[in-house]
Amino acid sequence: MPPRKLYFENVRVGDELPAMAKAAIDRVQLARYAAATNDYNPLNVDEPAAKAVGMPSVVAPSTLALGFLGQLVTDWARGGQVKKSQARFTRMLWPGDTLVCKGRVSDRWGEGGRYYVELDVWAENQKGELVVRGTVLLKAFYSFEDETRFRTGQPPLIVTVPRQATLAAPPPAKAPPSREPELPPTKAAAGKAAKGTPARTPAKASKPAKSPKKGR
Description:
By secondary structure, the protein is an alpha+beta fold.
């Protein structure tokens, strides 16, 4: 059976990627990551150097979490192409942290035979704290037929799909029913409302009457 592939026609805004839990970060992983990236920052691999600048221990590079998010996306988007990605780091990583990577489809659109899917992705630590959050833009075939056309040199399947992030947004919450005032309005206020006079506008009749002229 061929491996599952991502096709645009099967994706909907709001779909969630299967959460991916990672094992606790340890010193061996940090050493291997430093060797793989050729980045031997003392704060990541040298305990005395990290403590000398006030750290409780070595700190894991933030890009390690970014790599985990990349694994989450590529495992889900088989056959899709990553066209753009960006991320923002919000919390430091420490040895012993366990991360859970999550994602959700936030938008999709297609025109001219090109089809795109946008994802919101993020990672949380064992305390439920956000560590990194970002977005990923994928390009995918519309369907198996569309991919077959591409493989055989035929024109792509043309289906126009407007951006759907706003279309799929939840409807606005209904306003709660208005509460009746605890005390009923006075008859005077009710009369003013009936005449269209705002209740806060003082009535002319409330002005003091002029005193009679002297000498009469």
